[in-house]
Amino acid sequence: MNPDEIVAAVGESRPRIEGRLKVSGSAHYVADLPMPNLAHGWMVTAAVSRGRIRDIDATDALAQPGVLGVLDHRNTRRLNPDIAHHFGPDRSLPLLQDEVIEYAGRPIALVVAETPEQARAAAAALRVTYDAKPHDIEFSMNHPATRPASTLFGPEADTGDLEAELAGSAMVVDELYHTPEESHSAMEPHVATAWWEDGHLYAFDSNQGPFGISQVMASLFLIDPERVHIRAEHVGGGFGAKTICGAQIILAALAAEHLQRPVRVALTRRQVFLATGSRPPTEQRVRIGADADGRLRAIHHHAAFAQSPLAEYIEWCTEQARTLYAAPAIRTELSAVPLNLLPPCSMRGPGASPGSFAFESAIDEVAERLQIDPLQLRLLNQPVVSPVSGRPFSTRRLVQCLQEGARRFGWAQRDPRPRVRREGNLLVGTGVAAVAFIAGVFPSSAAITAETDGTFSVRVGATDIGTGARTALIAVAADALAVGTERVRMHIGDSDLGLAAGAGGSRGTTSCAFAITETAKALREKLGDSARPVTASVDTTPLINWQPAEERYTYSAVFAEVTVDPATGEVRVRRLLGMFAVGRVINPLLARSQLIGGMIGGLSMALHEESVRDPLTGRLVTADFAGYHISAHADVPTIEADFVADYEPQDPSGFNGLGEIGNAGTAAAIANAVWHATGTRHRTLPISLSRVIERAAAQDRPEAVSVA
Amino acid sequence: MRAFAYQRTTQIRDALNLIAQHDGARFLAGGTNLVDLMKAGVESPARLVDIRSLALGEIGETPDGGLVLGATATNSAVAADAQVRLRYPALSQAILAGASGQLRNMATVGGNLLQRTRCAYFADPSEACNRRVPGSGCSAINGAHHNHAILDWTEHCVATHPSDMAVPLSAFDAVVRYETLDGTGEIPLSEFYLPVGNRPDRETALPDGALITAVVIPAAAVASKSRYRKVRERASYAFATVSVAAALDVQQGLVQDVRLALGGVASRPWRARLAESALRGGPATAERISAAADVEIAAAEPLRDNAYKVTLARNLIEAVLTELAADAGEESNG
Q1: Omega of the bond prior to B195 within 30 degrees of 0, cis?
Q2: How confident is the model at residue A701 (pLDDT cuts 50, 70, 90)?
Q3: Does the CB of A568 have a partner CB in chain B at under 8 Å?
Q4: Radius of gyration of chain A from Cα atoms?
Q5: Edge-to-edge strand order for the sheet containing B47-50?
Q6: Torsions phi, psi for A667 (to 5 deg)
Q7: Which domains does chain A carry?
Q8: Closest Cβ–Cβ partner in B142, B231, B311 for A695
Q9: What does the pLDDT read at residue A1?
């Protein structure tokens, strides 16, 4: 084909290449993959929040039909106790190693049988007794155990003289914001099938990055990483809950080794809630000082989050405070509070989503108290360079997002006064929030083979968790190779494909696209008229500049319109608009879909999501979708997500990630709109009807009916 | 595995005999609640007697102008029935406010009345629950009870009845018809659900082994001027926080008849007779509506974390009656 005839694939809207397989039920997820001689494991979890297992009496369970064995801490092989994960040491990973329990839901046994039903029934016959100890789930940033969080992501900000600037400010907002424990709620429950052959561990696992998981599994089982082979071809969502090495694959691998046959562990929805990960609750104090004209003088954001005593974690809530606005003094602090809770893991814009809710609510409060339009306040305080590091931004199209969003949303017509817009019994309000989300790439590798039939086999350990990453990477490869997409054969989702970023941190596609682009470049240099296949491979590790001269972020502005019925407390979002600056967009159709999904996640966080624990036992009460509410279809309004033209100069193709930014700003925009509708500032999520309902609502109604 | 027998019957007598002859046998209709509870380990019947093939699916009229809803008529069928929509609009609205299309296609009239509370502690066999295991205690009373009862609860149980359908049926004085091996019987819905007392596991006055055959709704002119409003924690697909079924008939400026029942506030649909009395015979003014709401809610005793439901119930009674009064005003003016 003449290269001049090739239409660039990047920038084109194309549906997911595997879409037909998925909607016709032909795409095989982990639990669908057949396996001869398969045994089934049923996970048993701790019923106390802290204590020790006194005894696990498996007599009755073992006597049940089909039961092959019961694994617990007394008969399970030793795993590496000195294991680390993304955020540091992680003692939650070595399962079934001791009798210690630090949270309700901790996996404590696995019952294995010929069928899942037999395993489940036998698990019900397992008699577990505990020596319970007093537990602590009372989260507060003033908890005696509160300590500085890990600084793995770098030091917190501290520039200028904060107290002096606050003292010199005409007005200071000083408020506390709270977000609850939340659950990821991906559609596909966590599932793994594992088996061993000749000292090699093989697994199908529902995860967000098989290469990373393979490294953790190798370390956990103390074997050569080359001997661990993990595949995740199709994954039904993760939202961060599958970035970690899950209990399902650890237990399946333990049982498969113990029984010398393949074992599948498929979690139920309830077990997913109890045992896989959560977003921790946060408490955040935001102090912002400003001059009367709206210029910010001081920003102080102190965020605390809960974590487990078993594992280090970082809910990096302070990103907005150090990036969004210029101020002579900026200080951020991050604290961790170890409690007897399910160990948290990254969830839908970790840190940024709860952090943005607090910080962008506080900014709105500045505008409210100074009686300045909240959009204007945000525009007024835009920094020229990073307000903390002093480095320039590689690209920063936030102002364009705010201005174009305001134009489309009709912001200019907005009456800034709260509680003035009414439609019948409903109060109507609008709100805005700005977001910055850190961008970059993680080391990844790719290999591309020019086949003799004119096609190109691209091998990259990327994961497609439903976002369309596979389709996006095909377009990237096609353009990099200067061929049509029909000549690209994409192979992803396999740890054997080598080092690759997982689908997380909004960096999966960008990282793998970088590797593919560099590999294509290398391959094109090698290509001659060879009659044999030619392969090139590149590992981007040495190519990544970890100290770039410029700060790299994506940006968005989110606008929301809500209605509130003060008599019932019902809040409905009527309109959502997000304008995004996320570099050059690979596939607008898929990108828009992902951003809309993220905005629905943000809506859900704003109004609905909350994990509730029993105040006495610490056990999760909302361990199903009847109790843990996510937004239903009827809650989701017309959503518009669109892009401002952008190009990321740090990336050879101009790309940035967009996986999570859709989520990040939506809750603050909605909370600000609820304030505008009602005149009441909601500083605690979710903004549920119990918090919004007004006792005096009846007198407040415009038209009380009188029939005489 | 938990094995159980399954049997489908076409004759009421056979169904009753199967239940009488087998310990632990249960009727199965739509299965939308029972099967869930079996999966959760809350219910473990030894035998399921499938009654969906019994000839109990009819929706018909009574000689005096009321309606008979056959016990196995699906929720979807009842909600869509032209007579129901015309004469008892709140009933149709209530059914459509519940569950999902798929569930309503399976769920039946009888099953809806007999569904169990959605208290999370009831649904979890590892928790104490007097309703599930008498004498084991109540985890909810000091636990997570944000959406539990505010009326008529006892220290033994604070759960609510989840049905939407039963709320307008209560307002319309519906009667439950049943059959046992000894013959047929009737129980007014107002006496069908037992007060919680100290035995919350005893939920209904239905005799042992009885099969609900129909629900009869008497004729009532007021019912055609009725509506159902359900407030819940999201726009759809959630159980009620508080719901109201109300009907209001205003003639010459005076309340001729009024019906009011609440859902989500007690262990049974709550017929608001105090509010009805306060309104009947007088003008439907905003003040009197407000006073009626107050008088009904005066008995409410919220738990630690659900006082907002008292406000909500009060406001919702007021809002729905105000809307109905406005409709009546428009009718008389137009």
Answers
A1: no
A2: very low
A3: yes
A4: 26
A5: B5-8, B47-50, B25-28
A6: -60, -40
A7: 3-27+442-543 (3.30.365.10), 33-134+187-237+242-275 (3.90.1170.50), 282-440+549-692 (3.30.365.10)
A8: B311
A9: 43
Going by their DSSP bridges, the two strands A67-71 and A296-307 should be labelled as unpaired
Q: How far apart are CA A191 and CA A204, in angstroms?
A: 8
Establish whether domains B5-50 and B56-334 are of one fold: no
B293 to chain A: closest CA residue: A698
Strand order in the sheet with B175-180: B59-61, B67-70, B211-217, B175-180, B183-188
**Spatial contact of A255 and A110, defined as CB atoms under 8 Å apart:** yes
Structure tokens at B78: 């009842």
Confidence band for B247, pLDDT divided at 50, 70 and 90 = very high
What does the pLDDT read at residue B129?
98
Question: Could you give the residue numbers annotated as active site of A?
Answer: 660
CA distances from B265 to A138, A523, A548, B295 (A): 29, 70, 60, 15
| pLDDT confidence band for A697 (50 / 70 / 90) | very low
**Of the CATH numbers 3.40.50.2300, 2.30.30.40, 3.30.43.10, 2.40.128.270, which one belongs to the domain with range B5-50?**
3.30.43.10
**What gap in Å lies between CA A169 and CA A164, rounded to an integer?**
9
Separation of alpha carbons A702 and A685, rounded Å: 29
* CA–CA separation, A35 and A542 (whole Å): 40
CB contact under 8 A, B328 and A707: yes
Q: Do B237 and A634 touch (CB under 8 A)?
A: yes
A523 neighbors A450 (Cβ within 8 angstroms): yes
Please state the length of chain A: 708
What gap in Å lies between CA A221 and CA A243, rounded to an integer?
19
Each residue's pLDDT tens digit, A628-664 = 999 999 999 999 999 999 999 999 999 999 999 999 9
Residue range A236-288, pLDDT digits in tens: 999 999 999 999 999 999 999 999 999 999 999 999 999 999 999 999 999 99
The whole-angstrom separation of Cα B284 and Cα B137 is 45
Residue type, A406: A
**Annotated domain spans of chain B:** 5-50, 56-334
Coil/strand/helix, residue B228 = strand
Q: Which superfamily, per CATH, for B56-334?
A: CO dehydrogenase flavoprotein, C-terminal domain (3.30.390.50)
Cα→Cα distances B71→B78, B95, B172, Å: 11, 15, 17
Q: How far apart are CA A376 and CA A237, in angstroms?
A: 38
Residues of chain A in contact with residue B237, where contact means CB-CB under 8 angstroms, are 632, 634
Asked if residue B304 lies in contact with residue A681, where contact means CB atoms within 8 angstroms, the answer is no
Element holding B293 (H helix, E strand): helix B286-297
The answer to whether B61 touches B81, Cβ cutoff 8 Å, is no
With tokens 């439903």, the residue in question is: A466
Chain A segment 34-93 residues within 8 A of B by beta carbon are 47, 65
Q: Do B234 and A627 touch (CB under 8 A)?
A: no
- Nearest Cα to B255, choosing from B317, B315, B321, B319? B321
